Each structure stands twice: as structure tokens, then as C-alpha cells.
Amino acid sequence: MFVVAAPLMPAGYPAGAPRPSLSSLPVEGGAVLRPWLLRDAAAVVKAFQDPDLC
């Protein structure tokens, strides 16, 4: 495999870093982002099929 450019971020980044928070949004109790899970795929596909969301 040929390398055309150096990586922008080191391997493993941002592992171990604190997860971002959406606490500044007006959501009761705030919201916390989590990593995507395979079970999220169906909801993402459904959302992108909704013309009101795209």
C-alpha cells in the first residue's frame, strides 16, 4: 500500500479523551454524545430518507 500523505492525527486519537457534551443546548439535563453503535445504522438510514430532515 502506498502512503500519499502523513496522517493528520496520531493513531488512537481521541481515545481516552473526555467525550464532548452538549450541555450548553437547552435540553433538560443536557445531552452527552456517545460512540456510534451498529444498532444506530437503521435509524440513520431512516432519517436520511426523510425529505424534511435532508
Tell me what the structure shows:
This protein is low in regular secondary structure and 54 residues long. It is 15% helix and 0% strand. It has one helix and no strands. The protein is extended, with a radius of gyration of 17 Å. 0% of the residues are buried. The mean pLDDT is 78.
Show the helix and strand layout.
Blueprint: H1 41-48
Please name the defining characteristics of this protein.
single chain; 54 residues; little secondary structure; 1 helix; 15% helix; 0% strand
**Major sheet size, sense and barrel closure:** none
CA-based gyration radius: 17 Å
Mean pLDDT: 78
Number of strands: 0
Our measurement of the CA-to-CA distance between the termini, rounded to an integer number of angstroms, reads 37 Å
Strand content: under 5%
Shape: extended
Secondary-structure-based class equals little secondary structure
Helical segment tally? 1
User: Could you give the order of the helices and strands?
Assistant: H
Helix content: 10-25%
Low-confidence stretches: none
